[in-house]
Amino acid sequence: MDDSLPLDQNTLWNGAAGENWVAQQALLDGLFQPMADALRDELPVTVTELLDVGCGTGASTLSAAAARPDAHCTGVDISAPMLDLARQRAAAIGRGVDFIVADAQRHPFATARYDWIQSRFGVMFFEDTQAAFANLHRAARTGAGLRCIAWRSAQENPFMTTAERALADQLVLPARVPGAPGQFAFADGERVRRLLQRAGWQDVDIAPLDLTCFLSRDALASYVGQLGPVGLALRALPAARAEALLQQALTAFAPFIDGDRVRVETACWMIRAHSNRKGDGGDQVVHAPVARETT
Prior knowledge:
Helix content: 25-40%
Strand content: 15-25%
Largest sheet: 8 strands, mixed
Distance between the termini: 14 Å
Mean pLDDT: 89
């Protein structure tokens, strides 16, 4: 079994990026709470087996587990450091949640196991998005629901690119290639619809989801200086140079500051679909009991 992603992604999320997300877990959970709430509100009362894709430090998985305590919830992510924290958080509140360190594009999930698959910002990084959603479709029961929240375009999310634009002439940052794995890989909703349909998903609906999020003003420096491509670039510089550039970037966030908070208007997609798995001859698959995934 090979659950590895291409080296750059695997190294990124098991190295600096994953460690930074662990360190900033409380900040990020607070910032993206509206997205976790939106996913929770989509949960049917009948869910029994839930898979949370790209679950990170576990916020959306634990939110689902709290909302549906009778369901068995599993989170999957390539980042071992992030899942270490997710397991600690689950244990601290007594939740029996499983977490799997794996690439959801390649991991051999039990066939037709899950009746609900969700993701909060966890599906935009696959090497092959269609293959990933096909693998998840194989793991879905007949009629299973899929719910994913993903960013729309960089242009529609100016807060997320403010630091990059402020320091564009000071830092060499990775180029944003349309459709390439990354934060804004799902900007083209029609492209995502086609990929999902080709992967076997039915009733695909991709609807705008605009949410207002907030960040403590005191936390803005940590957000800019530690996270994303700018944070990674600054951490590689001498301390004095990094601090000077950080202060330059922070001035560009003035339009978003509202008292002691930073107001973040986000432009996302809510992606909805259903599995319509058919067996040979068009008959529905009969679901036998399955063992829990090993962690």
